[in-house]
Amino acid sequence: MLDPSLYRDAMSRYAGHVQIVTTAHAGEKRGVTITAACSVSDNPAMVLACVNASNPKNAIFSRSGNFALNTLSASQIDLANAFSGRDPALTAEQRFSMGNWQELVTGAPVLKDALAAFDCRLVELKVMATHMVMIGEVMGVSFGEPGEALLYMDRGYRTL
């Protein structure tokens, strides 16, 4: 078996678009900064997002039946940091108070000024090793102003 730290070092050289995946259920909201997300299909429109399965707070994604994938711009580093868990003292309420949020179709929180946001109905969730792989059918999209994309590479933020 490959040493996990060696794998993480190699993956740190892989540039990923920074996104916040969100959901809401029974009055509770959850958001997590991720780079593990991609398009699955355009017909029907589907995306994939991965979150850490070992964090018990992420169980809400399976209960809610929805999620939104919010694509961040270079100007949204503060949001990326807030939702990354780097400051565990921040509550969900404090994190969500930092952005301008709306609902589209599913009830998942959608960031109004995300470069692009995908509001999804959860169609499949599979736990694979350390992560939950969520596949969602895109039920709605929204667009913020065009801008530079926020990327994560070599364990730091970059722009493009």
Protein architecture, described:
- With 160 residues, this protein is of the alpha+beta class.
- It has a single domain (13-153), classed as Pnp Oxidase, Chain A, CATH 2.30.110.10.
- Helices cover 17% and strands 46% of the residues.
- It has helices at residues 4-11, 60-64, 77-84, 92-97, and strands at residues 16-17, 19-25, 28-34, 37-42, 45-52, 66-71, 101-102, 110-111, 116-128, 131-143, 150-153, 156-159.
- Strands 3-2-6-9-10-5-4 form a seven-stranded antiparallel beta sheet.
- A hairpin with a 2-residue loop joins strand 4 and strand 5 (45-52).
- The longest helix has 8 residues, at 4-11.
- The protein is globular and about 40 Å long.
- The N and C termini lie far apart (35 Å).
